């Protein structure tokens, strides 16, 4: 990952300059959260934390950067000297990558000198908004596939090389099993997969010769694309001929891929033809502009599909291409005392939660199924309480709630080291995410009209928010 210290908006530098002069000893605490879930879903899969860590580890300014700043003639030499001697002091807490996160929950926080922490806003949001968006879309598609593997095929449709590479990483966190993107596969140790393009078949005099040639070079990786001409009249019959030749030579075929046409009908007839020919284990893979809605429809029709190759609608999250995560100041500190801060709005939906906070996932004793989340002030000792007064965190439903009793509270935010450490594999993050999903109620995971999952705030946090909103109104 290249050095990204200039990936920010100009006003961040202008504010940092002002903070360095007017409030040089003040620290700030910023929360990263979102208010709305893409595709009218219930939650977001957090992703991108490792890239945030790397970006903060590498954060510095080169002589070329400083020369550019000087050419802008916006800031004095004292600020340029500060940037030249920049040393990262910020501290990071976050939910582990792959954690399902609900609206208004801070899933990453930055604490540090106000000027430094302000400079990180755009960079941090750029990373986590993108990867969390794609991981969330992949989770939806994985859910729709009902245990069938999802393969990420979207590099050619991604919005640039970085989106292709880090989008692939996020897709795997969200549930994809492999990728066609060789660079992402190498960089993140992801299984790489693929068959052939139509141009392979077109380059030969006939389809059968194209299939036989492929099988000659790849006898143990013969997944044949059968829709270049006619799936049922030539593609599948020619594939079966080659499969029989492979078996006679001691090899087993992988299967076929269909990239166009009436997929439900074609896969049903292709499955029958393969089975009748003695190849019940040959897999049928489909591709071509798939998303969770199409996957669900195909499987509801009984289409015998084994794998899904998904491109543009995954790598771009085409149906909901933005996760509007925000980076909001929640507290400042001079010397040792933290002062909670709030942003007030005419819309209660944009009223922020002040102070340093912790987020808990709540379980019944002895249960592995969560029943709610809780946002609390960081200094509240939630884990030892037997009864707790709470409010609904949803600003539309903001009201007191029956006191919580008989619960076990698991904290979700943890300190993250900015010193080089062993990197967790993407496969391990995906496994963690899958485990976390099993702890959520099934109705909350539905793709259409999911049940609301309760997210509460403690009475102490709710009262602090109300008091500060009144003072600053």
TrEMBL record:
Q: Which residues form a coiled coil?
A: none
Enzyme nomenclature, EC number: 6.3.4.21
The pathway is: Cofactor biosynthesis; NAD(+) biosynthesis; nicotinate D-ribonucleotide from nicotinate: step 1/1
What the entry lists under InterPro entries is as follows:
Aldolase_TIM, N/Namide_PRibTrfase, NAPRTase_C, NAPRTase_N, Nic_PRibTrfase-Fam, Nic_PRibTrfase_pncB, Nicotinate_pribotase-like_C
**The name this protein goes by in its record:** Nicotinate phosphoribosyltransferase
Q: Which UniProt keywords apply?
A: Glycosyltransferase, Ligase, Phosphoprotein, Pyridine nucleotide biosynthesis, Transferase
> Gene3D superfamilies per the record?
Aldolase class I (3.20.20.70), nicotinate phosphoribosyltransferase (3.20.140.10)
CDD domains given in the database record:
NAPRTase_A (cd01570)
Record-annotated Nicotinate phosphoribosyltransferase N-terminal domain positions: 6-129
Which Gene Ontology molecular function entries are recorded, alphabetically? Answer: glycosyltransferase activity; nicotinate phosphoribosyltransferase activity
This protein's species is Lactiplantibacillus daowaiensis
Q: Which residues form the Nicotinate/nicotinamide phosphoribosyltransferase domain?
A: 150-338
Query: Does the keyword section mention Nucleotidyltransferase?
Result: no
Q: Per the similarity annotation, which family is this? A: Belongs to the NAPRTase family.
């Amino acid at each position: 990952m290249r050095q990204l210290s200039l990936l920010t908006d100009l006003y961040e530098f202008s504010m940092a300059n002002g903070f360095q002069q007017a409030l040089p000893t003040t620290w700030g605490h910023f929360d990263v959260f979102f208010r709305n879930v893409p595709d009218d879903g219930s939650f977001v899969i957090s992703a991108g934390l490792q890239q945030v860590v790397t970006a903060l580890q590498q954060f510095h300014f080169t002589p070329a950067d400083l020369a550019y700043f000087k050419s802008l003639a916006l800031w004095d030499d004292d600020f340029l000297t500060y940037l030249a001697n920049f040393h990262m002091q910020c501290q990071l807490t976050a939910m582990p990558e792959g954690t399902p996160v609900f609206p208004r929950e801070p899933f990453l926080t930055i604490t540090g000198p106000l000027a430094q922490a302000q400079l990180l806003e755009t960079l941090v949001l750029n990373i986590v908004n993108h990867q969390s968006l794609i991981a969330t879309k992949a989770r939806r598609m994985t859910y729709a596939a009902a245990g069938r593997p999802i393969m990420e095929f979207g590099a050619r449709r991604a919005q640039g090389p970085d989106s292709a590479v880090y989008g692939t990483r996020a897709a795997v966190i969200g549930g994809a099993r492999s990728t066609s993107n060789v660079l992402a596969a190498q960089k993140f140790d992801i299984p790489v997969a693929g068959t052939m393009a139509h141009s392979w078949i077109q380059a030969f005099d006939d389809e059968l010769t194209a299939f036989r040639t492929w099988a000659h070079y790849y006898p143990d990786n013969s997944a044949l694309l059968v829709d270049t001409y006619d799936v049922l009249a030539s593609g599948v019959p020619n594939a079966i001929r080659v499969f029989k030749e492979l078996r006679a030579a001691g090899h087993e075929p992988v299967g076929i891929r269909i990239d166009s046409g009436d997929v439900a009908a074609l896969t049903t007839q292709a499955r029958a033809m393969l089975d009748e020919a003695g190849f019940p284990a040959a897999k049928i893979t489909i591709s071509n502009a798939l998303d969770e809605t199409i996957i669900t429809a195909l499987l509801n029709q009984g289409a015998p599909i084994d794998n899904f190759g998904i491109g543009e609608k995954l790598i771009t999250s085409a149906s909901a291409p933005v996760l509007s995560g925000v980076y909001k100041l929640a507290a400042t500190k001079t010397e040792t005392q933290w002062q909670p801060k709030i942003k007030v709005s005419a819309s209660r939906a944009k009223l922020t939660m002040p102070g340093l906070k912790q987020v808990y996932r709540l379980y019944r004793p002895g249960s592995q199924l969560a029943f709610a989340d809780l946002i609390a002030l960081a200094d509240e000792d939630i884990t030892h309480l037997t009864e707790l007064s709470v409010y609904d965190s949803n600003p539309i439903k903001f009201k007191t709630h029956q006191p919580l009793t008989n619960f076990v509270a698991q904290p979700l935010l943890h300190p993250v080291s900015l010193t080089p450490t062993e990197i967790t594999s993407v496969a391990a993050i995906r496994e963690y995410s899958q485990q976390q999903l099993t702890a959520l109620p099934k109705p909350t995971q539905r793709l259409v009209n999911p049940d609301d999952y309760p997210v509460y705030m403690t009475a102490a946090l709710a009262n602090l928010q109300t008091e500060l909103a009144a003072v600053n109104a």
